[in-house]
Structures are given as C-alpha cells and as structure tokens.
C-alpha cells in the first residue's frame, strides 16, 4: 500500500517538556520528513527511564533546553526513510538507541569500545546531528521543538539517524522489547560485556532500580555465586530476590561501614561491584567493597554534578579498578539484535521489569510512579 505521508509533514501528539518539573504537555506537533540518512518512526510503545526523569526535573543545568520532547526507550515501525538510508525500509520493526553506531568511524571500528564519534550519547545535543536543525515544530510551526538523546520517543512519530535504529525480528513482542533500548541492556551488558562475570564469582549492586536489577539478572544468568543488593528502599528487596539477589543490605539502616559489611559477608570482598545510583559516596563504597588485587567497580549511575571521583590515586595501587560503562558496552546496531533474541528466548525475563502499563496520555502519572519509587519500567502505549 502506498504511503501517502512519505515526504510530507505529519501532525501527531507528543508529550512536550516546557520547563523543569512542569507536567509534560500533550500537544499536537508537526514532524518533518526524514532527511539524508534519517528515518521517521511511528512509535508504538515507549517506557520511562530515570534519565528521562532527570532531564524532566532539569537536574543538570546544561540540559535545560525547552521546549523539548524527551524519551529514549521505545519500539516502533519505520514510516519512511531518507534517500541515503541503507539496510532499513518502511514497515521494519525497530528499536531506537540513544547511543548510535555509524559503523565507519575510528571508534566503531575498534572492538574494545562501543563509542561512536558521530552518534554517541550527547545529552547536550538538541538538534539533528546531520545538519543542526530540528524535525519537531509546534502545530502552527511558529516554535521549534528540540530533540533528546538522538531519539525523542515521547511522540507518536519521531525522526532519528539510521545509525540510531536497530531492526528486530517482526515476530518479537514490541511491548516488551522497548525496555532493551536502555535500562535492561545497560545493566545486563555491564555484567556480560564490561565485567564479563563468570560462574562462581561474587558481585555487589549499589542501587536497585531497573538498571541495578538488570545487573542482578545478568549476574544470575552468568552463574554468580553471590549477588549482594544495596538500597535504602526495602520494598525493592522482594523484587530483587526474584531477579537473583542472594543478600540484601539496607544502607539507610546500617550502623557500620557499608563496604566493610560487604567485605565481611563476601569473605574478603566481591569480584565486581556495580554502582547504579549516581551517588558519589555509593561509588566510593562500591570501590572499597571489591577484593584487593583484582576487584573491578563498574560505574553505571549518571552523576549530574561536576564532582570528581572520591578515590585517592594511591588506592588504585591495591589492584582495584574503576571503569565506566555506557549502554552495557553493546555496539547497538551489530550486537543488540542478538541480545534481543536472547531476551526473547528467556535469558533475561523482561516481564519482571515492566511493573506498569499506561496509555500515552497518562505519561505524567507514569513519571510520578518513578519519582515515588513505585515502578521499574512503566510502558506507555501509543
């Protein structure tokens, strides 16, 4: 069937952020057709991540760009493609990725990194990478509306670079797979790719949100012998147990040093710790909780303040290490399709991460669930 909208402006609904902490406004916006190597996608499902929450609150002053369409975890169907797009076509089922892969730059060509010079994550970028212009406009086209994290999925239609689009099997459940756009991939990938946890090893997880619990699921899948979960919210412990966590510590009620307690119950320190909270003190405790000589701390939490690492240089001579991890170390376009297959086959139970499902127009209620710590992932149906 002929696509009569191809090459034309589409008017649709979007949730527009107009100020820090203000309720997202469901508005009619105009979405321009894709240019060059871009793709326009009809979003079917999108979920709410803590990164969206942080941007909505305006926690990082440099990110306070308005009006803006947030959102970066989603699934959808390609509506149309630009002239220079290869490997993708109208009707393909896709997962957007905020951390793109052009496949050509010096970073993409190196196996030891998943960075991309052209389309890697850039929270400050507010326009299209190709030409610095916008693809969203107010209904009367009097006001440009800015992009977010290469994706902007809180909209019925969005435009993205083809390097930020991953094609998936049409038989896969789109509602579930929207959460592999960020949270689940970040946590599981940190275990499988960055740390490469092996059977019998011990891990500690600081912060039991969706990313932290994805770390637990990844560690269990790898056969970790001990998975210690740390959080100040005891309501997360039952969920964590289902994800594979073997020991829990409520850091808000602990009288002694958190790292000393982890060293004690792990018998000398864990092999790997994962900092998922974006808290500097938690990062230090995560570092000290690992075993002398070989312990590795993987940093996943987003630190919005311009603070430095709480580690004295001499402490690194103990053999402990710290490494940052973006998008679980996955090269999105080349490795995410296989990860999606593994999730569908049951290596990671995606259903456990989806705690709420709401219609798109209830997006502010979904944000509040995350603020209140009542949800892991709220999936919105468009």
What does this structure look like?
This protein has two domains: 205 residues, Medium-chain alcohol dehydrogenases, catalytic domain (Quinone Oxidoreductase, Chain A, domain 1); 139 residues, Rossmann fold (3-Layer(aba) Sandwich), CATH 3.40.50.720. The chain is 22% helix and 24% strand. Strands 3, 5, 6, 9, 10, 17 and 18 form a seven-stranded mixed beta sheet that branches. It has a six-stranded parallel beta sheet with strand order 13-12-11-14-15-16, with helices on both faces. It has a five-stranded antiparallel beta sheet with strand order 4-1-2-7-8, with no helix packed on it. The two termini are 22 Å apart. The mean pLDDT is 94.
List the helices and strands and how they pair.
Layout: E1 10-17, E2 25-31, E3 38-47, H1 50-57, E4 68-69, E5 73-81, E6 93-96, E7 136-138, E8 144-145, E9 157-161, E10 165-167, H2 174-177, H3 183-195, E11 202-206, H4 210-221, E12 226-231, H5 236-243, E13 247-250, H6 258-266, E14 272-275, H7 280-288, E15 296-299, E16 321-324, H8 332-344, E17 354-359, H9 363-371, E18 377-381
Parallel strand pairs: 11-12, 11-14, 12-13, 14-15, 15-16, 17-18
Antiparallel strand pairs: 1-2, 1-4, 2-7, 3-5, 3-9, 3-18, 5-6, 6-10, 7-8
Helix pairs in contact: 3-4, 6-7
């Amino acid at each position: 069937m002929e696509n009569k909208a191809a090459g034309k402006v589409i008017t649709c609904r979007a949730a527009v952020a107009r100020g820090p902490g203000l309720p997202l406004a469901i508005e009619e916006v105009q979405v321009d057709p894709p240019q060059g190597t871009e793709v326009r996608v009809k979003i079917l499902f999108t979920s709410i991540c803590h990164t969206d929450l942080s941007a909505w609150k305006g926690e990082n002053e440099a990110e306070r760009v308005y009006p803006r369409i947030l959102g970066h975890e989603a699934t959808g169907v390609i509506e149309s493609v630009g002239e220079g797009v290869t490997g993708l076509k109208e009707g393909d089922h896709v997962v957007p990725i905020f951390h793109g892969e052009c496949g050509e730059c010096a970073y993409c060509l190196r196996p030891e990194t998943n960075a991309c010079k052209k389309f890697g994550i850039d929270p400050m970028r507010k326009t299209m990478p190709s030409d610095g212009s916008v693809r969203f406009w107010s209904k009367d086209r009097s006001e440009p509306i800015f992009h977010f994290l290469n994706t902007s999925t809180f909209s019925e239609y969005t435009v993205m670079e083809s390097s930020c689009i991953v094609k998936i099997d049409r038989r896969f459940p789109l509602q579930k797979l929207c959460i592999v756009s960020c949270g689940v991939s970040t946590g599981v990938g940190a275990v499988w790719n960055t740390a490469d946890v092996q059977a019998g090893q011990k891990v500690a997880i600081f912060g039991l949100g969706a990313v932290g619990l994805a770390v637990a699921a990844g560690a269990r899948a790898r056969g970790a012998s001990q998975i210690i979960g740390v959080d100040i919210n005891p309501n997360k412990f039952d969920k964590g147990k289902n994800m594979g966590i073997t020991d829990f510590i409520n850091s808000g009620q602990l009288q002694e040093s958190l790292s000393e307690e982890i060293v004690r119950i792990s018998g000398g320190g864990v092999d790997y710790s994962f900092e998922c909270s974006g808290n500097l003190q938690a990062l230090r405790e995560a570092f000290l909780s690992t075993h002398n000589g070989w312990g590795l701390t993987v940093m996943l939490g987003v630190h919005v303040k311009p603070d430095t690492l709480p580690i004295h240089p001499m402490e690194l001579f103990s053999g402990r290490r710290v490494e940052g991890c973006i998008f679980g170390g996955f090269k999105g376009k080349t490795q995410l399709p296989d990860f999606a297959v593994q999730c569908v086959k049951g290596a990671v139970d995606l259903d456990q991460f989806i705690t709420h499902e709401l219609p798109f127009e209830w997006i502010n209620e979904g944000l509040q669930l995350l603020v209140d710590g009542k949800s892991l992932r709220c999936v919105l149906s468009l």
